[in-house]
Amino acid sequence: MRVLLDNFSKSFGTTKVIENMTLEVGHGEMLALLGPSGCGKSTTLFAICGIHRPTGGRILFGDRDVTDLPSQARNIGVVFQSYALYPHMTVAENIGFPLKVKGMPGEDIRKEVDRISGLVHIGNLLGRRPAELSGGQQQRVALARALVRKPDVLLLDEPLANLDAKLRLEMRSEIRRIQRETGITAILVTHDQVEAMSMCDRIAIMKEGEIVQIATPAEMYNDPRTAFVAGFLGNPP
Ligand code: ADP
Ligand code: MG
After folding, report:
1. Is the ipTM beyond the 0.95 threshold?
2. What are the DSSP calls for 158-189, one per residue?
3. pTM score
4. ABC transporter domain spans which residues (predicted)?
5. CA of 31 to the centre of ligand 2 (A)
6. Going by CA atoms, what residue is nearest to atom 7 of ligand 1?
């Protein structure tokens, strides 16, 4: 589903974090919001989630104006840096929980949990509890739980930040594979330019609440519009 931020603004009290941002993410596209810490990436993503209400502008999913809708009514899947799995539940119960809340019958939940855990490659972990999983496995469970309701949009905020270097590399390609296989529209927030370049169709580089350039990874690399963009892409953190 297409996502459109139309003249989106967000302030906290008198602090203006985002002013008049317009951004379109195409159906089936994976877009990175890339920029240094504090530039407003999470604020933007939280507004798309429905956690923050915009102080100006509109947010559209397809033709539907979701600006005033709560998170639950937006049909989104979210994965944040901390996995926030329910520790007392098994993997299967964690993944099935969003369906249980919706009132789906147990037999149907089992089918959907099987389907999504096959896609995310955790079919062998369904009986375990989160404490018995590695960081990468926990993150796969969080992804499965985010995707089980077949959301229109997948929102990822620094999803790899808690993983060690090897797992981060593995999960980069895994998240991209899953995004491609499901064809879901996805927005990835990251401060890591290599992550953005290797995972996304397009990158929106942000600085102090503004998008300074939006382009494919190749275009961005070959033709950075400003010294800030060139510097940011050239200097790994
Ligand atoms: P990023 O995700 O790019 O690191 P954030 O979107 O979290 O940046 O934050 C952008 C700016 O907005 C920061 O200056 C931050 O202090 C401010 N900010 C974020 N959330 C709040 C809030 N709830 N109240 C006040 N200021 C906030
Ligand atoms: Mg952030």
Report:
1. yes
2. STTTTS-HHHHHHHHHHHHHHHHHHT-EEEEE
3. 0.95
4. 3-233
5. 16
6. 42
